[in-house]
């Protein structure tokens, strides 16, 4: 083990990590295997994967069927190009399958290898859409503060968390962010969006891009009517609506796609993560018939946008098998039912402890906010590091979870595999209770 950790320090630059911390502390956990909602590290410690790793292992770990689907395709045709007029059957069948699951009117799929590539692709596609209609001035993208959309060039800029722009300088031009709905409510957030559109000039705006539910921003649900009003504003100003379903797609929220909860159909949808449950990298953009028709009619010559792995046959074969599992095992429905169980567990914890503010779930996407005063929602000072302490306490109890502490929030996020059962939900929430209680005691907060 020690040797591995030395090699890790020397040769493996971890994504989204503190390089200094890696050098001083070394890798804390080296994972070895997975089964269902559980992960086991090289020392034999077993953890509940309460985040489905990176919100993505929807069907749970250790699925032999997916390994077999990959092996079969790897042996037959591991890879071939989808550029120009070449195609392959798994990619065709997966595109058709995704179209059948997507909201009515979204039927054509451009494949990528992940969420960032999908958002960059969607942004380039909408700019192309306007350009071929003689409206090249429509280039700007409006997104939301606290939104997270990835780390490629455009997806970094469309992300509404400034730390991501600062890492290598600044964001690209032609991106701007309206206030999020979190703590603002529908009216204020819509007013901010409208003001942003007016300020930037509607005729310069290509699209609005947002997650149906902000994930990495803290699992923030849109308030009543918000997305409907966004759709109306987009229509009023002739702006396309891109929904980032990278987290919310493929059953995470108790419906196949997150937008279904709000009765709103976007013009483009980006997806990744749950499409293969992370067994192999894959993502994509689904476009509306209306957008596709414009592309079919007016996109002359070569579309100069394509990744080597767009339409990867093996990734597509795994995607198809993964969706088959989601459907066969009723995992979208299980997500809805277990999400309700999880919420009951959260509510019980809120009742029994003193530092729990809002608790929420939508399917198996949930959050517990920790606050100094649940009556007023007064937040803890950031330097108290309350949420990171709870994450640490959860880790000690065998639960891997994630905190959002951006702008002094203390939000514990949950996104467990969709295969979780009642007993496992109860075990996970018991451990959460213990972890929060231990931090509450450490802070010296006693029940009044
Ligand atoms: N969009 C959303 C909503 C995400 O949560 C993420 C990743 N967490 C991305 C895009 C980026 O996806 P990837 O990391 O696969 O590039």
UniProtKB/TrEMBL annotation:
Q: Which family does it belong to?
A: Belongs to the class-III pyridoxal-phosphate-dependent aminotransferase family.
Upper classification of the source organism reads:
Bacteria, Bacillati, Bacillota, Bacilli, Bacillales
Alphabetic keyword roster: Aminotransferase, Pyridoxal phosphate, Transferase
Output the SUPFAM superfamilies linked to this UniProt entry: PLP-dependent transferases (SSF53383)
| Alphabetical list of PANTHER family matching this protein | AMINOTRANSFERASE, AMINOTRANSFERASE CLASS-III
Whether Transferase counts among this entry's keywords is yes
* Pfam family for this entry, one: Aminotran_3
InterPro entries given in the database record: Aminotrans_3 (IPR005814), Aminotrans_3_PPA_site (IPR049704), PyrdxlP-dep_Trfase (IPR015424), PyrdxlP-dep_Trfase_major (IPR015421), PyrdxlP-dep_Trfase_small (IPR015422)
The UniProt entry, under PROSITE patterns, shows: AA_TRANSFER_CLASS_3 (PS00600)
Give the GO molecular function terms: transaminase activity
The protein's matches in CDD domains, at most eight in alphabetical order, are given as: OAT_like
Q: Which domain of life is it from?
A: Bacteria
What's the protein here called?
Aspartate aminotransferase family protein
